[in-house]
Amino acid sequence: EESIVPDAAPANAPENGAPSNAQMDAWRGLFDTAVAAGHQTRVALQRVPTGPTRSAYAHDADAPPCMVWSLDHIFYTARTLRLHSHWAALEADPEAAAAGLPTSKCPSDHLPVAATFTPVAAATLDAADREETMRQLGALLEAQQSEWGLVKAGLEAEQQAMEEAERAAEAAVAVPDEIQEAPSQKKKKKGGKKKGPPSAEMQSFMRSKRERLRELKAAHRTHREEFVGACDELRLDVLEAELGDLFVWIEKGSVQMKD
């Protein structure tokens, strides 16, 4: 007789059939992306409370009893829709839940789901609250722009003072050397002295300058995030209309800040 050899399992498939660590990491990444999407797009979704829609043997079994799963869903935004009614599922059909799907009454292995909604007008912020929100936003923007300008100007002034002091020190050392040089040697230097690397003190200052500006950026980002986090949906509508993508604004701010 011809023997039948089962197909080889994929190279990354675990022996016991459970998801691998790599597959679980990929699933977690997909889950986190889905969770973040709701926050980033500011679409707050609610689920219609449909019951289980799938009934079958357990994944590792080939005989009863059957298990039920809630695999089919309807999501909606309560800001503009009010749930009116929805179909029942397997919670209303214990016979199908016990026997599994499909059945003589349902030719599919999933029950269909359906719901009806009533449209509602989206709420908006009143004029006084809108004005206060814009005032708070303006105060935050002005404070961050002012602090950034003062800190950067102070660091640049300090850097300029260090550069002038170093040039003065170099000039003081260079004068006696030029006196001792022959005229022929001076002609060779007509093109000017080649500029060397910054001094150790200047390199240390530049590192501390960049770190100070990075710290200030991080602090400003935290303040913007806290400001947005304290706003309700109606205030977020106002901010989004004024600033655009709030996640981009939290990360970058409204003023382009360069080191």
Describe the structure.
This protein has 259 residues and is mainly alpha-helical. Helices cover 52% and strands 9% of the residues. The chain contains seven helices and six strands. The strands form three sheets. It has a two-stranded antiparallel ribbon with strand order 1-4. It has a two-stranded antiparallel ribbon with strand order 2-3. Helix 3 runs antiparallel to helix 5 and helix 5 (200-229) packs antiparallel against helix 7. The termini are far apart. 7% of the residues are buried.
Task: Draw up the topology in text.
Layout: H1 21-41, E1 46-47, E2 54-57, E3 66-69, E4 75-76, E5 81-86, H2 94-99, E6 115-119, H3 127-180, H4 183-188, H5 200-229, H6 233-243, H7 246-252
Antiparallel strand pairs: 1-4, 2-3, 5-6
Helix pairs in contact: 3-5, 5-7
